[in-house]
Amino acid sequence: MENKIKSIIEEIRPYLNMDGGDIEFIKYEDKYVYVKLSGHCLDCMDQDFTLKNYILSMLQNEIDEIEGIVNVNL
Q1: Which CATH fold topology does 2-71 show?
Q2: What is the pLDDT of residue 70?
Q3: Which pLDDT tens digit goes with each residue over 31-61?
């Protein structure tokens, strides 16, 4: 499961990188994917939209079991 999630995130990264942002997979636990956004994504007003409507949607299209996504600040 984690390898599939990491693979999808690697497909997303270039798009975030184009805008000066980045994403890092942290863990998968209890049907939730934990990621860390960095760069311009930290201050972006569309951060929640990107997480829920873009990244989560892409993950759920490939993996039905995923229920949500959480941005962690480490």
Answers
A1: GMP Synthetase; Chain A, domain 3 (3.30.300)
A2: 95
A3: 999 999 998 888 888 888 899 999 999 999 9
For 10, the token pair is 């690697």
* CA angle centred on 2, ends 7 and 30, rounded to 5°: 135
Q: 27 pairs with which residues across the strands? A: 34
Concatenate the DSSP letters of all residues of 41-68 into one string: GGT-TTHHHIIIIIIHHHHHHH-TT--E
Spatial separation of the C-alpha atoms in residues 21 and 1, rounded to whole Å = 25
Distance CA 41, CA 31 (A): 24
What are the structural domain ranges in the chain? 2-71
